[in-house]
Amino acid sequence: MKKKIEDRRWKIENGPYTFRGRGIKDRESETEGTRARIDQKMKRFWFLYGLSLLGCIAILWLVLNDTSIQDARGNDTKCEVHHVPLKEDVVPIVYGMIRRTGEESQARHSLFPNAYSTYEAGCVVEKPQKARVRYCPLCREAEKEWEDNTKRRK
Prior knowledge:
two-stranded antiparallel sheet
């Protein structure tokens, strides 16, 4: 008796027809339908994967190729020390708290106030990495000379 039950169960599970709760279906058509569903899911997965990868690449490209330039030009048109017209340049922005010695601060204020070889934007880091400034070419020369003299002394 037990053997007959096992044989029937085997025929139901592995025979040409299987019972799946909705009626009896042909086993081959069921596997074709399953394969079609799996293929459709895989196509959808790879499409969404490719789309998300493309989105990540686009965002990365935008972040790395950020061309925004902060406008840091003041209203001055002439250097107050050298009395020459100021020129425009794009310089790197330096973020953070910059500590200078009293000697350096005084030199920057009195000898080369319009050098602007870098632009100091404070402690809050923002997106722009470059700034458009107005500078005095003579101030930049004085700054370079002062820095060279300071390095020699040390």
